[in-house]
Each structure stands twice: as structure tokens, then as C-alpha cells.
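Thread amino acids onto this structure.
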């Protein structure tokens, strides 16, 4: 099992990794700011909240999702999510896995460096696609990166 600290307050532990499924336990130690609006063009997500609550904006609708509840984010649906005050713990499944584990590993290695994180996003267009102005920046970074 690998654990990645995606932010100071969000920690992901991989519990199963196959081409079909990436299953994780995720812990938010406190409320954070919402990540940028984004979508996953080729993947579906499923969440089950075990403790605390998640603040989620899915398809433009904001919800507070508490312990004992589950929800899905289908591919292509714009969303944002973070813990509500007090933190949260949930299981998170991504289908198919694609390169999501590589995405998490690289985001953790970026260690909060925003430019490095944008480069990671640019390198994982099937796993994470930001919207708005951030998407334009990511496209430029993607065009500038060396091709092998």
C-alpha cells in the first residue's frame, strides 16, 4: 500500500490497484479550500463517507455528504470536493484506474509547488482536466513539455 499526501490536509492510501480499479482510503484532517473545478473525461468515481462530512459541488449543485452516505461522480461531470469542518474519511474508487496512481505520486512529489503541480496535470489529461483559465495554462505547459 502506498500513501500520498496530496495537500497538507488530504492523504490518500491505495488499497487496490488494477487496470480496472484504483481503490483508496482518503483522509482529510481538516476542512480545506475546494480544488479547481475539474472533470475526469474517461473515469467514473464512487465515494463512501465513513466519518465526518464532505463538501462537494457536483454538476453545479453543492451538497454536504455525511458519514454513511455514498455518491458517484460520472465521467465528464464537473466537480470539486473537500472536507467540511472537522475533516472526513472516505473510500474512493476510480474506474478505470488509467494513470491515476501515477498522478497522485507525481502530485505528492511536487510537494505544493504550484508550477510542478500544473505540469503533472498537463501530463495526465485523461485522468484530470481542469476548467477555465487553469485549463489554458495547463494546455500551454503540455505543449511546452518535451516529447519522448
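Threaded sequence (148 positions):
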Amino acid at each position: 500500500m502506498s500513501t500520498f499526501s496530496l495537500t497538507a490536509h488530504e492523504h490518500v492510501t491505495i488499497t487496490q490497484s488494477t487496470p480496472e480499479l484504483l481503490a483508496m482510503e482518503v483522509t482529510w484532517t481538516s476542512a480545506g479550500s475546494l480544488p479547481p473545478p475539474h472533470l475526469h473525461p474517461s473515469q467514473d468515481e464512487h465515494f463512501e463517507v465513513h466519518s465526518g462530512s464532505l463538501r462537494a459541488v457536483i454538476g453545479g449543485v453543492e451538497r454536504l455528504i455525511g458519514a454513511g452516505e455514498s455518491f458517484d461522480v460520472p465521467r465528464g461531470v464537473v466537480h470539486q470536493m473537500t472536507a467540511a469542518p472537522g475533516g472526513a474519511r472516505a473510500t474512493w474508487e476510480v474506474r478505470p484506474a488509467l494513470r491515476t496512481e501515477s498522478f497522485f505520486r507525481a502530485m505528492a512529489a511536487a510537494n505544493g509547488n504550484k508550477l510542478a503541480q500544473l505540469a503533472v496535470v498537463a501530463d495526465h489529461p485523461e485522468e484530470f482536466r481542469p476548467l477555465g483559465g487553469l485549463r489554458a495554462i495547463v494546455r500551454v505547459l503540455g505543449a511546452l513539455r518535451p516529447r519522448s
